[in-house]
Amino acid sequence: MAEMSQAEEASTQATAPDSRPVYEVGFHLVPSIPEDALAGAFDKVKAMLGGAEVIAEGFPAKMTLAYAIERAAQGKREKFTSAYFGWVRFAAEEASAIPAIEAALRAEPSVLRCLLIHSTREIETKAPRAVFSSDRLEGETIKKMTEAESKGEVSEAQLEKSIEALTG
Fold first, then answer.
1. Rounded to an integer, what distance in angstroms lies between the CA atom of residue 31 and that of residue 79?
2. What is the C-alpha to C-alpha distance for residues 79 and 83, in angstroms, rounded to an integer?
3. DSSP-assigned beta bridge partners for residue 22
4. CB neighbours of 112 closer than 8 A, spacing ≥ 6?
5. Its pTM surpasses 0.85
6. Which of 17, 78, 97, 149 is least surrounded by Cβ atoms within 10 Å, i.e. has the fewest?
7. 76 assigned to some structural domain
8. What is the 3-state secondary structure (H, E, C) of 99-149?
């Protein structure tokens, strides 16, 4: 009987929702990283997350920045107009670990900028496109207006007739 309760307990733990807080970090890596060393830099960023469970990730891809980012490094001002953008969604063991993770990311010289936010476990997908449907127009095709029709004026009677056809 004790074995049965342990099995039941294990099954309820497996089906119980994960209560760990979920975060997402988006970051820009400096563009001076060679392409062959990019995977190592990405792994280094993921290692800064400690023992967090990685839920989803986006490998860094090179992009042109909307504006130049400047930062002081080794007594000089560096300007960047492009960077590698990547992101990682992860479940942290404790929310108290987040400030340390953020400080480690900001101290890393290969990370140009980063943003760490609270997120959800679910991965959003693109919403399906809305499709217009109507019982009144079933079987009919909507005709494309020709240039001549679009430039001409419409009489009040034609307008009323069109509205009547649409409403019913």
1. 11
2. 11
3. 91
4. 27, 28, 29, 30, 69, 71, 80, 83
5. no
6. 17
7. yes
8. HHHHHHHHHCCCEEEEEEEECCCCCCCCCCCCCCCCCCCCCCCCCCCCHHH
Which tokens is 121 given?
A: 């476990």
pLDDT tens for each residue of 11-38: 444 444 678 889 999 999 999 999 999 9
Q: Which three-class secondary structure state does DSSP give residue 77?
A: strand
Domain range holding 30?
19-118
- CA 63 – CA 101 distance, rounded (Å): 25
User: Which CATH number covers residue 100?
Assistant: 3.30.70.60
7 lies in some domain: no
Number of separate domains in the chain: 1
